[in-house]
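User: Sequence recovery, please. Input:
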């Protein structure tokens, strides 16, 4: 019975949309895709101890599980519509589920996302969400498409979330502004929509700017140069760390959920206007060049070799350190 009372608590807060013909409660949902649009689908999972520390508040997990998925739709310039939620819970803890739904529904309401189904099982704490949205054919932004002469843009200020995580891992106090960026990332849905027809390629930054820009470069078959002097820095991060330690957090830290995109240099004013309409800050951090890979320049012009590029599951070093950690 407990499973069904948990599902009822969740279903009560699913949110409504006219295009949901049949939502939670049957064997599957029935959904209406607008005529002439493509269905855009993405899925991301958060595992306890891997994607969030064990003591993360339930509401922060609820917010973030949806945010990381909406970030993938944002990177494709899609308009979010529906999601499915698969919850694996160690116990039937109604208080935890209510807290989780507080965070989840706060973000779902902002983007008019309806929860239309899912699955609830017992097991180690894990949250997997599948999101669906729409985009007109030809409007989707992809990882491929960057051209020599394009500028490379980033929204927001990368590095904040990674700084928060790093400081709490070594037991240092974390500024609330940085903690907020780790727990409640704002998916850049409006910016992605406004960049339709402007950006030549786009990706969302989840594993670190260098790692994710690397995917965009590979898909586009092209290279890049980044200028550290042009990296936007939040005041909270600037107060916390400087120099190469900051560069590493900003370029290889991960958990940013910003958009990294390319656009022709001649369209700079149009990109600025688009970002302004989306109320989203953005900055040019480099350029696309012939070749492959990404060169990084220090403020004095010398090349900088980052000690790492970003986060990767099954990285042998990470797997070894997990083994030494009894709680992992
Ligand atoms: P089935 O056995 O047919 O898979 P379930 O008992 O798992 O059905 O689920 C019953 C209904 O509740 C389904 O409509 C399912 O989509 C929905 N549901 C179950 N878990 C969740 C959840 N965590 N979030 C949203 N909907 C859920
Ligand atoms: Mg089921």
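Assistant: Recovered sequence (328 residues):
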């Amino acid at each position: 019975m407990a499973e069904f009372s948990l599902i009822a608590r969740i279903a009560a807060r699913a949110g409504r949309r006219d295009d949901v013909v049949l939502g939670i409660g049957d064997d599957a949902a029935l959904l209406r895709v607008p005529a002439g649009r493509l269905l855009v689908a993405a899925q991301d999972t958060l595992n306890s101890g891997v994607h969030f520390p064990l003591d993360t508040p339930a509401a922060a997990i609820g917010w973030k599980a949806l945010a990381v998925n909406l970030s993938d739709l944002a990177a494709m310039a899609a308009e979010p519509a529906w999601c499915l939620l698969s919850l694996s819970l160690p116990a039937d803890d109604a208080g935890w589920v209510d807290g989780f739904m507080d965070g989840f529904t706060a973000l779902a309401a902002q983007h008019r996302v309806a929860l239309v189904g899912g699955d609830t099982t017992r097991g180690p704490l894990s949250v997997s969400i599948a999101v669906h949205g729409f985009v007109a054919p030809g409007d989707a932004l992809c990882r491929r498409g960057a051209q020599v002469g394009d500028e490379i843009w980033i929204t927001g200020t990368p590095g904040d979330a990674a700084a928060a995580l790093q400081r709490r891992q070594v037991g240092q106090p974390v500024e609330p502004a940085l903690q907020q960026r780790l727990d409640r990332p704002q998916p850049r849905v409006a910016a992605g929509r406004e960049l339709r027809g402007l950006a030549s390629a786009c990706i969302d930054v989840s594993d670190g700017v260098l790692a994710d820009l690397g995917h965009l470069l590979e898909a586009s078959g092209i290279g890049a140069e980044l200028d550290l002097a042009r990296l936007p820095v939040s005041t909270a991060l600037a107060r916390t760390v400087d120099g190469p330690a900051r560069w590493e957090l900003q370029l290889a830290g991960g958990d940013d959920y910003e958009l990294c995109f390319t656009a022709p240099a001649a369209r700079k004013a149009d990109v600025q206007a688009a970002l302004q309409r989306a109320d989203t800050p953005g900055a040019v951090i480099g350029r696309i060049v012939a070749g492959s890979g990404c060169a990084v320049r220090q403020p004095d012009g010398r090349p900088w070799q980052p000690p790492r590029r970003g986060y990767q599951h099954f990285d042998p070093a990470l797997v070894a350190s997990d083994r030494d950690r009894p709680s992992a």
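The CA atoms of residues 225 and 252 lie 15 Å apart.
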